[in-house]
Amino acid sequence: MMDVAVIIPFYQAETGILTRALDCIFRQTYKDVLVLVVNDESPLSPVAEVESRPESERARIRVISRKNGGPGSARNTGLDCVPPEARYIAFLDSDDVWTEHHLQYAIEALGRGYDFYFADYTWPSRSSTRLTQTRLTEFGRRLDDEGRLFALEADFFEIILTTWPVHISATVLDARALGSVRFDDRLRVSSEDQMYFLQCACRTSKICFRNEVTMRLDDGLNVFRRQPVGTRGFSRSRISNAYFHRLVQPLAEARSPAARAKNRELFKTNVRDFARSEVKSLLFNRRAHLSLYGPACRVFFGPSLPDACPL
């Protein structure tokens, strides 16, 4: 029996990234895992790296190929393939890694009666961590003597919307409680994980987290990473984020007046940031990213949203 289904959406152009992710999975102290590698029409196939694993590990890996649809859609494919006997679902992006106790800590925590678990994480060459930055322990109730495990006592929906302390690769959930939640296919390039967390927040308030780094981000393929203001990538990301906040608005309105107001404020911030980026590009580069202006107008001012972010 394999208690934990680990879903890896795969879209990479560099050999070795998937191998590193698989290494960290099979070094886990918790061993009952099934790994679902979803090949999202990647430029580099995952097959060779999977076939190079020992036979005992290959028996626990399934490669699922699909047409490209973005990371959220790829994770949905993985979720659809989780076997019914799996008790827990973990996510790991192919360019991220876990420490060896990540799954053990998660399953011990979920076994206390929680539905959604996440751990602290950090970035390459960073001394800070995400939970330190967001001061999340101030919103938690200590569950152990060491001060590592906490129950979240604030509104998870508003926490995700305002400070976003969770990363998808640091998340493990109870399949019985949240296994039917899916990523929004309309969000192909960004914010699909944040929307997923908001959907989980609408289903449960049984949230716990570990104030210890058990996941580290790395530098695989990411369309928006390190995009400075004034670049096409930054302007494009503001359109995508604004599209996300328009999608969230009905959920926020149903949640609370505070969530509705905050989401609307964040939408307006993305509109302003897009304008600021384009002004900077015009002033310093003498260039306007005209191909983005049509999608921006449809997202910022259109009476109805396109079926997918028009980028």
UniProtKB/TrEMBL annotation:
Ranges where the Glycosyltransferase 2-like domain occurs: 6-137
GO molecular function: glycosyltransferase activity
Keyword Disulfide bond: no
Keyword set, alphabetical order: Glycosyltransferase, Transferase
InterPro entries hit by this protein: Glyco_trans_2-like, Nucleotide-diphossugar_trans
SUPFAM superfamilies linked to this entry: Nucleotide-diphospho-sugar transferases
EC number(s) reported in the record: 2.4.-.-
Protein name in UniProt: Succinoglycan biosynthesis protein ExoW
Native source species: Sinorhizobium kostiense
